[in-house]
Every structure is written in structure tokens, then in C-alpha cells.
Amino acid sequence: MDEREALRALAGTVPEAGDDAAVVDGLAVTTDMLHRSTDFPAGTTQYTAGWRAVAASLSDIAAMGADPVAAVAAYAETSLDWGEIEAFVRGAKAVCTEVGGEYVGGDLDDHEELTVTSTVVGRADRPVFRSGATPGEAVCVTGTLGRSAAALELFERGETERANELFRFTPRVEAGRTLAGRAGAMMDSSDGLARSLHQLAEASDCGFAIESPLPVDTTVEEIADTAEQRREMGAFFGEDFELVCTVPEEALERLREELSVGLTKIGRVVESGVTLDGEPLPDRGYTHG
Amino acid sequence: MDEREALRALAGTVPEAGDDAAVVDGLAVTTDMLHRSTDFPAGTTQYTAGWRAVAASLSDIAAMGADPVAAVAAYAETSLDWGEIEAFVRGAKAVCTEVGGEYVGGDLDDHEELTVTSTVVGRADRPVFRSGATPGEAVCVTGTLGRSAAALELFERGETERANELFRFTPRVEAGRTLAGRAGAMMDSSDGLARSLHQLAEASDCGFAIESPLPVDTTVEEIADTAEQRREMGAFFGEDFELVCTVPEEALERLREELSVGLTKIGRVVESGVTLDGEPLPDRGYTHG
Fold this sequence. Notes:
The structure is a homodimer.
Chain A: H1 3-13, E1 22-24, E2 27-35, H2 36-39, H3 46-63, E3 67-77, H4 82-99, E4 102-110, E5 115-123, E6 138-142, H5 147-157, H6 160-167, H7 173-179, E7 185-188, H8 193-204, E8 207-210, H9 218-223, H10 227-237, E9 243-247, H11 252-258, E10 263-270, E11 274-276, E12 279-280
Parallel strand pairs in A: 3-4, 8-11
Antiparallel strand pairs in A: 1-2, 2-5, 3-5, 6-9, 6-10, 7-9, 8-10, 11-12
Helix pairs in contact in A: 3-4, 3-7, 5-6
């Protein structure tokens, strides 16, 4: 079975595992394992790897509307090099400084390739789950989509500095906190917008009518040659870590004033079916390696 | 550099990383990465692996005198098999049911070999650190030592059922909770008694005068052929996950009445030097692979 099937099966055994983070007794906890071969393309600096590993978990905490408290990482590499570890830790600490939470170390280990498991715990007084979307609400996304897709293309072109910058995304912790208690349903777009929408639809037993244009990163506009490529990068590629949420129409204006990141309405919650401009939106996207 | 050197260096960057678990804002967090090749000998069942992986982190939480709230595990294997994952999860949940905390799932991934990162978060209202030992206090250890050393020998002999049972240790969460606010210093014996004592001595700037006999597991008595082997298994092998702590002499009797696990006085805190029966106790033990 692939990871997704296994996760679904696992969710049956562990009911708390079906959301971006588990919520127990007012605490949200999430853990993510990353590998060099699947998550850090050639050219990714150790600083970026540390940032991104912890940021991915911070994004899960943000997607619950929770406040990060502490982050830890277990770090394994073929040979442990202090300079590399130190750069990794600097990146991990930097993203915590930017959005909240304290990086408090972790575990070190030998392994065949760089393998990092990051875990973040936060306080979740008003957790937002995937299951609360209601027909009539607006569907929104923070920031822009396609950032990681563009970064990968830049890594391939050897433009590693710009690629590393794009890879060091800002987890939407502040937005998640503001949306807590106001969004009906929320998750992050780490598997791609299309897959996220299908997951929200399944959890909330609803549908989504999405309308283009989607808010796409300027680097995508620059890199993609065709509208088809732009759509692919924006809707399917994933690893973007924006928040996808549903909010009452009447709350939109006020939320936009409060948020320091853009909140784009991309459609509305309907009874069933996930469509883009009236056509079925396929349930495909990034399957985490 | 080896893991220990790197950890020490890391502790300089991340001051919270020098104890069994980091404590931030009333929460204790710990993470541990385990691999089949170094941590799960041939014959270890998936149920035992799940139990032991989460138990190792629960032990770190216990060593802070904290209350476990939630446990997560990131699980990677060459190919994901639902039966194996299910058995792993059952083991992970079982140990949480036994000592407290809720197992709430985690992440699944492909990897070259079974690699598990378990993380536990707990509430730490009265955390006990490694640094609080005071000369004159009694040095104590919970339960018995040498259990994992004996298990490894049994795995080698093909007595896998008994070996698995020994491997599924009970983290001393209840004892840790009882010792919180009363022990001067505490840590678990995962690196072996000798190394634990040296780490406590360094953190507390003190010494320990230890007297034999050490409380050794009955299986060690059965398996070890010589007194030298018993000593090796009890004092140095490690991976036992008992609590090593210092407590005021006058508190000992009361603590023993309250605890459901044995608490053996093995010596006393002195100004400097770590000795066993008057001879220097070498600072060696298990270096986690």
C-alpha cells in the first residue's frame, strides 16, 4: 500500500491522526519525517533544510489554529559534521524566531542519508479541524501557490540562491491564530491545493466550487511557459504550506484587515463535488515520499 | 565527531537540549530516532518495536518528573505493510495505556530500513533536572538493571519470546511523578548506570560514591556466568530506562512506601569523583547508534 492508504488505515486505529496535527488535552502535536533524496534537492543548504523541516511542522500547527510552543528535530546523517549540524540548527531556530515557538534541540544519529524528523507541539484552545466546512462559506487560501514548484525548477536550473530563498517559506502561524474560532475548516496545502480540497471535502462531507484565477506566486508566472504549467504548479504540485480554509462570507473583509498575509477567496463550499471553473478537479497532487 | 560530542556541541547552541527532555513553558518534549540495525535485534516483533520506541521517549518524560500527554511516531520502512504498521501501533498504544499519555499517530514514510522517531510531550509543573544533586543525598535507582543486556543475549540464543518480553519495559512514569519536587537530580539510565552517573556528576558538579551490590535483574543472574559479566550488564550496558536520582536520606523511607516500583539506594552524593566500592567507575556505556 502507499503512504496515503496506510495513513487512512492508521487513522482508523488512531482517530486523532486524521488532521494536520493531533489535538489532545488542549495540546496540538505533529511530526514529519523528511529525507534528502525526496525532500531536499541538490543545492539545498543545511540552513534551509533546518528551516524547512521545522517550518513544515509549524505549518501543521498553524493549520489547527494553534500556538507553537516547542520544536524538536531528530537529525541523522551518514557522518555527523558539526558545521552542518550547526547550520541546520540555525535554520531551525530562525523560523521559530520568525513565527513563534522555541527550538529546543533533539536527537542525533547515524544514517545512510540525511533523515530529519521534526516535531512541534502547540497550545490549541480553539482547534480548527478539517471537518467543519459548511455549504455557503467562502473557500480561501493564504499567500500564493506554486512557490515550491518554482523552487524545484530553479534548483534544476542551478539558481540555488533564489531556490533556497523560496524553500524557506513562512509558516502561516499568525494567520492560523487569527482564523481560529472563525474558520469552519482548515488545513495546509502541503499535498497541493487539489488534494487538500478533496481531503477537506471528505472530512466535512461537502464539495467545493473553485474559480480561477488561483493566486500563483510571481516566480511561477516567470518560470511557467504555458497556462497549463501555471495551473499544474499552482493547483497540484503542493509543498506550499499555505492555509486552505472555509470562512463565512460576511467575515472575509474583517479577516483581511486583520491578517498581514493575503487571503484570497478562490470559491465557495457546495453540497458535493470538487470543481475548478465548473470542471471536476482531479484528486491528485504531491504524495510525500 | 561522535554523537556524544555533537550533542554536547549542540547543547551549547540550544541550552535546553542538555537534559532528558527539554522543558519550555511548562511542557516537556523529547524525541528519539531508532533504527532496526542498531536498536531492534533480529527477532524483535513489530509490537515490541512500537512499545519500545514510544517507551524510550516516555522514559525521558518520566526522568523530568513530568506527566505524559501525547505520543507520536514517524515510521519509515522499505515497504509499508499494513499488518506490521498495525502491530507497531498496537505496541505504541499499549505502553501509553499502561503508563499514561495518548498515542496519537504520526507520519509514515519509505526508507532503506525500519527507522522510527518517537516524540512525547508532557506537562512539567515541577521538572527535575540533572543539575540539582547535593552532597549528602542518597543516590537511588528504580527497579533493576541489566534487563536489556539480558534480552540481547536471549535474542542471540533464539529465545525471542522472553527477549521480547524483557524488551517491553515499563517506563517509570509513576515513579518520576512521585519523585518530582523531591528528587534533587534525576535522569534515566538509557546510556548505562556508569555513564548516567558521570552525566549527573558533570551537570551537578558533584561526585558519587556507589556501593555494590547493584540491583540486577533476575535474568542477568541467570544468564551471566561470572560476577564480572553481571557487573558489565548491570553497570555499563544500559538501555534499561530505569530512573537514577538523588534524594534526601530522610525522604527515602516515605518514598519507598509511596512507590509501586522498588527504589534501591546504591550510594551517596559526594563532592567529586565517581567510584564503585572505592574504585573509579569508568565513564563508558552505551553510545546510541
